Amino acid sequence: MIVVNAKMETNEENFRVIKKAVEKVEIETRKEKGCIDYAFSVELHNDNNIRITELWEDVQSLKDHLKTDHILNFLKEISETTPPKTEAYFFEATEIPYPDGELPKEVQG
Questions:
Q1: Where does 1-109 have alpha helices with state H?
Q2: Bridge partners of 3?
Q3: Listed residue (4, 78, 73, 74) closest to 34, CA to CA
Q4: Are 6 and 66 in contact (CB under 8 A)?
Q5: What pLDDT sits at residue 100?
Q6: Is 107 helix (H, G, I), strand (E, B) or coil?
Q7: Distance between CA atoms of 67 and 31, rounded to whole angstroms?
Q8: pTM above 0.85, yes or no
């Protein structure tokens, strides 16, 4: 499994543009072959930081994703303002069970 962990540092103007563009890219990306999970989130203590978490079956699925029209359109839309400062990290991972046996009952809902 490939894990992408990215962070965009934005400002108020960029945030509005990115938020509008995200809806389209999330919906289309989740339909892609090889996409396990794809999500944007905002840090609760700093709404100028947007987090991106992606899970892909393999590297080829991620490569194919980066060439899609919805990603190219997303990049074009967010570049219409000052581009956000973005850090992205890519990992190959194997899923493991919760390290202490089971999730704590307090978070199992």
A1: 12-29, 59-66, 69-78
A2: 55, 91
A3: 4
A4: no
A5: 82
A6: helix
A7: 15
A8: yes
Provide the residue type at 66 as one letter: L
Half-sphere exposure of residue 99, counting CA atoms within 13 Å on the CB side? 0
**Separation CA 75–CA 59 (nearest Å):** 20
Residue partners of 71: CB distance under 8 A and separation at least 6: 25, 29, 65
- Give the amino acid at 78: I
Written as six digits, the tokens of 103 are: 């999730």
Name the residue type at position 8.
Answer: M
Domain spans of the chain, in order of start = 2-96
pLDDT digits (tens, 9 = 90+) for 18-46: 999 998 999 999 999 999 999 999 999 99
Enter the CATH code of domain 2-96.
Answer: 3.30.70.100
> What is the torsion angle, in degrees rounded to the nearest 10, for the CA atoms of residue 109, residue 48, residue 18 and residue 22?
-10
* Token pair listed for 67: 């060439």
- Which amino acid, 57? E
Cβ atoms < 10 Å from Cβ of 27: 11
